[in-house]
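go over both lines:
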Amino acid sequence: MRIEHQSRGSKEHQSPPTSSPRSESSLALMRAVELWLADGRAQGWTERTLQDRREGLRRVAWWLEHEEQVPASLHTLTKDRIRRFLAYLREPHPEGRFGCGKPTAKRPARPYTLLHDYRNLHAFGEFCVREELLPASPLQNLKPPRTPKDQIQPFTPEQIQALLDAARRSQQPERNRALLWVLLDSGLRISEVGSLRIADVESGTGEITVTGKGGKRRRVYLGRDARRAVRRYLEVQRRGAKPEEPLFLAEGGTRSGEAMTRSGFTQVIRRLGQVAGVQGVRCSPHTFRHTFAIEFLRAGGNVYELQVLMGHESLEILRRYVLITQADAEAAHRRASPGDRMNLR
């Protein structure tokens, strides 16, 4: 998106004599965003974080210019407009949001997408205040969008088996089965799976060295069946591959032979879900992460171990998984209460 920048010397946007140029609120939005990203780069943000935040604010700039029909500047990024922007995300758009015709751009954005965009704007606003680009954040006292707390729905064992069976019938059976096993048994984020190299997986012990958010490295592990699936994939489809090559390769298209992308993983899982007839749960890579967490706790793992394996800095997100497993225990007690079953008087 090309955004015209006003000359600092123009009469319309010239700062008052007593103001510093850095506090000029008519600064083009994307110019301010680049200052924010430069600061983030100095702090060590990953390239993915930088790209995600740049694209998020580009969408805001597009919305200001095309929907609000105002210049995309700090001056026009007001609290009321941010409210309308979040409402824009919530609504269906048959023509597509942000000029995009993809099916996902025509449906209302998911609650967590709204929260993600809000957090990006909030962090950007705080930066602008710190750097004296704005006197106050436009999100000051603006509450974040509500997100449902009960939307964690894991796969059932029957659904996972159906997905594995569907993978056997796919065009890349060994790769797809290995992918399903890694997602199920490691709890990795899909971005972390995409960054794996063959050398990162120790086929004998199942230990995986992964680089997570913020460039932090940690170790996760694969069980016996998952190790077997990965070994078979490497022996059948990747014989002779070099250790530095991506673990999972894309198929077809311009990226054939390169590492699978996030969208590539998502398409594979969605396609397998359709073949398997999986219903009642969102068939996505992230659902495997939910499933890993819940099954780990159900099997007796504790929340602190889970925190390390999943790469979370705090326990806040994990509390939702704990509540689900506590509900399991409550239901089990109702079914097998010793006092109720003895029929005592």
